[in-house]
Amino acid sequence: MNRRNLQIFPRLFLALVFSVCAIAHAQPSGAAALVGVGQVFRLDGGNVTYAMGVNERGELQQIYWGGRVGEGDSIAPAKAMREAASFDSSYNNTPEEYVGWGAGLFHEPALKVTFADGNRDLVLHYVSSSKPKDDSIDIVLKDISRAVTVTLHYVMDKESGILARSATIENGESKPIMIEQAAAAAFALPPAHYTLSYLSGRWGGEWTLNQETIHQGQRVLESRRGSTGHQLNPWFAIGKDDADEEHGEMWFGSLAWSGSWRITIEQDTLDSVRVTGGFNPFDFGYPLKPGEKLESPIFYAGYSKHGMGGASRLLNHFTLTHVLPQAPNPKLRPVIYNSWEATEMNVTEAGQEALAEKAKALGIDRFVMDDGWFGQRKTDHAGLGDWYVNKEKFPNGLKPLIDKVHSLGMDFGLWVEPEMVNPDSDLYRKHPEWVLNFPGRPRNEQRTQLVLNLARQDVREYVFGFLDKLLTENQIAFLKWDYNRNWSEPGWDQVPPNEQKKVYVEFTRNLYSILAELRAKHPGVEIESCSGGGGRVDLGILHYTDEVWPSDNTDPLDRLTIQDGFTRAYPAQVMMAWVTDSPHWLNARSTSMAYRMLVSMQGSLGIGGNLNKWSDEDLAIAKRLIAAYHPVQKTITQGDLYRLISPTNGSEFSATETVSSDKSQAVLFAFAHSTREERGFPRLQLLGLDPSANYALTSIEGKATGDTPKEASGAWWMNHGIDIMLRGDFQAAAFLLDKK
């Protein structure tokens, strides 16, 4: 697979300001002379400047990363840091852009290799730079004596200042080398008191925001699971200790990789902080034959002086305009109905058609049939891998149901789980060698299924083939692509032993290539990445899919914190948010239809409850609020998000506000877990409005106090604020503000 298919760069329509003292030409592979010493490379975008240079040893060193400095301001050349003691060498203290493991390095390396003769020392020096496009710069580093080169790729977005970095590692030796660790990039921050924010969780409890002081040593965020993982997400934010939601300096990053990954945050003995991220080196080994290359993922990173809120708004807007398949103008997500909770796997043509009629009556745009339509799929014990329509359930195939859905004015979507197989399936009986396994060892099942080895070309062709056939033969507008377990026994015995650990890279590359090829051949099809909730959400998969499934937990109170964490790193546009039944199956909590609807209306709205059991009153409320959602959806899902009150840390309240990019509209949501002692909901001072414009207030659901004006200036709403009438348990309100 070529670099264009793997990387996200073709989607980046970015600008680069590039200033250098001089551009050195590439040196011969055996040259020992230092080149480029004193050169400074500067990138400017948005309110950010990033600068690096070649120091007196020939190393490429970060000089500055922070708020934008004047175009006429000079940036001092790079200078290696001092040796603090014989135990703290200059080589360890200098913030190199991409450092090899060698020369006495003790902190986290960006690259570690073993040469054919057993040598493991790697010292990378600057060789050359080039501009393959006006919006990019490549810098070549090379070992001081061996023919191993690393090309560092930089692209900075002119609007946000978000920097996209990746690396290409090439073996120019006459014999193979083994790459044991490879990062996409490393970033550095000068000594200060910092707080690290990151997202953790588990199935049913994803997207928990954690914040902790950075101390000496390493804080490792990682997944060893073969995919992104519920446990930790490849996103971080680092703020100075005085930073909060809307104020203070904040550096942030997101790794675009859907396989095993690792981000290491490390404070050294002199209190500088380094962030290094890329492939997870655990159980990792990628051999390169002479002339072969390894492409890293992309590591995106940015800076904001407006706290966590400013950081998330920058990254979320960047994702919308540069990462998603439909960037820079992604379509609004259809309001969907999914049949899972109504029928689970007991799907039939008549039953699905009846649900489709009920969904249409609510104002639904897309009807999605979930699991159970294929093979001998009656429970989760059988059928995965056999992607033919079950004739007992659908005697005439899917066409009659699809035609019915279309006649109702909705498009049709379908659930699939392409990377998995049940041992009780025709596919497994025919090809037991197709799963990840170590021969002669147990094959551990989870959810009674095994993982197909997508790194194999024959498996890749099978998966693409059945999906292509399904889409060619049926008018399917949407695939809910599920992935319901992590890896185990990640063996690949069809290749030589020294190549088997390449499975971690090749599996994900083939996943991306299948998605890219499907989208190219079926450009109208949209895809959701689902993995038992938030198990595969990252900027890598989001380059090929239109939306993601944040959590299987749809309890509305839990979703307030789940959605709060999710939107720190990803836009509401891709956050599917379903309304399901009450009492909720997970927590047995009872909540009103209006409360459930308003929680889900903060993202891309869906209905997932059993419509056969909803009361007429609940159906009427859902229909009314779906109708209210459609005209304000663009503001909610693509606008600037302000977290007025976070539901975290045991808060009794929650409130969000989204403002359209032109500040012509804002949508406000407010939620009360419970009120006590006759106290009401706290006054909300809005953010992000045009202070000199007037905004008219309209209720979507709920009431403001009687003295609230129907129209007032942006300055009024932001300084005086709004008092909302919310009392009791699990209460919710929503308001619309339109510029006059």
Q: What structural category arises from helix and sheet content?
A: alpha+beta
Low-confidence stretches: 1-32
Mean pLDDT: 94
**Beta fraction:** 25-35%
Query: What gap, in angstroms, lies between the N and C termini?
Result: 52 Å
Largest beta sheet, briefly? 10 strands, antiparallel
The number of distinct helices, counting runs of at least 4 residues, comes to 14
Approximate helicity band: 10-25%
- Radius of gyration, in Å, reads 27 Å
- How many beta-strand segments? 35
- The coarse silhouette is globular
Which helices and strands, and how do they pair?
Blueprint: H1 3-6, E1 40-45, E2 48-54, E3 60-67, H2 90-93, E4 111-114, E5 124-130, E6 137-143, E7 148-156, E8 163-171, E9 177-189, E10 194-200, E11 208-213, E12 217-223, E13 232-240, E14 250-256, E15 261-267, E16 273-279, E17 286-288, E18 293-295, E19 298-304, H3 307-323, E20 336-338, H4 340-343, H5 349-362, E21 366-369, H6 399-407, E22 411-416, E23 420-421, H7 426-430, E24 450-451, H8 457-473, E25 478-481, H9 503-521, E26 526-529, E27 547-548, H10 556-569, E28 576-579, H11 593-600, E29 604-607, H12 616-629, H13 633-638, E30 640-645, E31 653-659, E32 665-674, E33 694-701, E34 711-713, H14 714-719, E35 729-739
Parallel strand pairs: 20-21, 20-29, 21-22, 22-25, 25-26, 26-27, 28-29
Antiparallel strand pairs: 1-2, 2-3, 4-9, 5-6, 6-7, 7-8, 8-18, 8-19, 9-16, 9-17, 10-11, 10-13, 12-15, 13-14, 14-19, 15-16, 23-24, 30-31, 31-32, 32-35, 33-34, 33-35
Helix pairs in contact: 5-6, 8-9, 10-11, 11-12
